[in-house]
Amino acid sequence: MPDHTKVYKNQTELYDQMVSKQPSLLKVIEELTPINQLDVIDMGAGSGRLTDILAPQVKSILALDSSAEMLKIVDEKLKDNTGLSYKTQVADHRKIPAANDSADLVVAGWTICYLGSSNVENNVHNIETVMKEIMRVLRTKGTVIIFETMGTGFETPNPPEFLKHYYSLLENEYGFSHKWIRTDYQFDSLQQADELTRFFFGDELAERVVKENLITLPECAGVWWLKKDTN
Predict the structure, then answer these.
(1) What's the rounded Cα separation, in Å, for the pair 160 and 222?
(2) Helices (H), the chain
(3) Hey, what CATH topology would domain 4-187+217-227 get?
(4) Which of 11, 70, 142, 162 has the fewest CB atoms within 10 Å, counting from its CB?
(5) 74 near 96, Cβ under 8 Å?
(6) Radius of gyration, CA atoms only, the chain
(7) 24, 22, 17, 89: which is closest to 53 by C-alpha?
(8) What phi and psi values does residue 142 have, to the nearest 5 degrees?
(9) Distance CA 94, CA 63 (A)
(10) What global pTM score does this model have?
């Protein structure tokens, strides 16, 4: 598996092209909470897959990521739209640069996993710290929505073993509701499918893509959501 830290620093354009081949998640979010006129924090914004679709409809959005290179793509996409209220900032999920009770919606797409994976030191403590930070910045009755992988190359959920404990904590320790969705990649050609799969997921999956002619590459994603109550 390629080093994703290097991908997020040095292959940002390829990454942005790859995720552009997946369906929009706007309807998924809107099914869980109205978004008009909300103050939003996008944790692990990456190249802006969630910021892009939310920014035109919300009151404000703060896009956070550990990669300044990724956030440059977000800025490039949104800079000419003067009607948007957005800000990008390099940040660690364990210390969100936002005031208490400042967000109505927190979204985190394919990102907390890098702190919560069982092969990461202090993973359980990391998750606890992140959850405390989310609850700190979230207003009462606000919503947090987390997206994570449930398996690329699979038509039904097949989550990686090293993420199962993190997912269990979300549901059993922190009280998140959960469902899964399909987030298939629809590539333009087999050559593109090979290139965009290989750089991010590695040779094994890319070889399967070529062998099976997977211009449409199936993928499952988990959606976890929680509303901050008044207690």
Answers:
(1) 12
(2) 4-10, 12-19, 26-32, 49-54, 68-78, 113-116, 123-137, 164-172, 190-201, 203-212
(3) Rossmann fold (3.40.50)
(4) 162
(5) no
(6) 17
(7) 24
(8) -75, 170
(9) 15
(10) 0.96
Residue with tokens 């988990």: 222
Six-digit token string for 65:
């990521």
For residues 143 and 134, what is the distance between their CA atoms, to the nearest angstrom? 10
Structural domain boundaries of the chain? 4-187+217-227
- Tell me the HSE value of 182 on the side-chain side, using a 13 A CA sphere: 10
Mean pLDDT per 10-residue section of the chain, whose length is 231 residues: 83 96 98 97 98 97 98 95 93 99 99 98 98 98 99 98 98 98 98 97 97 98 94 57
The pLDDT assigned to 83 comes to 87
Find tokens 């660690």 and name the residue: 92
- Bridge partners for 90 per DSSP: 65
Report yes or no: 174 and 21 within 8 Å, Cβ to Cβ. Answer: no
Number of Cβ atoms within 10 Å of the Cβ of 12 = 18
